[in-house]
Predict the structure.
Amino acid sequence: MQSIVLETRSLTKTFRGSEARALDKVAVRIPRGCVYGLLGPNGAGKSTLLKIITGMMRPDEGEVLFEGKPWQRQDLRRTGVLIETPPIYDNLSARENLLVRTTVLGLPKSRIDEVLEIVELTDTGKKRAGKFSLGMKQRLGIAAALLPDPDLLILDEPTNGLDPFGIQQLRAMLRGFADRGMTVLISSHILGEVEQMADHIGILAGGVLGYQGGMPGRGHLEELFGKVVEKNRRGGWQA
């Protein structure tokens, strides 16, 4: 039986001015060493859930457990996070961007070369990050998330804006992380990409986790997704 790296229990969140719950008693269980795809349409609550998991936001009810214990801020040292846009200084090179981060976090500078090699950005030299393509910026953001050598990597919509080749590279990279024992949690609304890389999925719709488990048989994900979304459909809320 696989051990559970991250678990949430009855996470509930309602934002001021909204009658609908952004999250409604959400309970995810993420096994160690897998790629877990958090699926859902826009406004489903995916980003809200990830922000609560990473301590950026507090739930109204419920709790987050990291390796069976209540989540603490120190657990961020074992977690790599990229939510929304990559935190990049456009006027600095890739190496300089990572140097800023290692200095702030007190991490060894030796990790810079290691993560640049992992994301294939070693040959960018002194080129400013502002001149990078969208795919290169995304990889630099992932490199920053990898600096603490995390047990858990959390990525919010990592394929947004990438071309087909960039998506293929990212998919291979994330599968490689999981094959080496890292747990990867990605949120997405692109079913085809998640179907090709995830071992486990959770489908969030209307703030409700309508399905959680292994990947359904090839070609059945779209059908399952449609059923969950239709059952939990609501109007007006955007996460």
Q: What stands out?
A: The helical segments are 46-53, 94-105, 110-118, 134-146, 164-179, 191-197, 221-231. The chain is about 30% helix and 25% strand. Residues 235-239 have pLDDT under 50 and may be disordered.
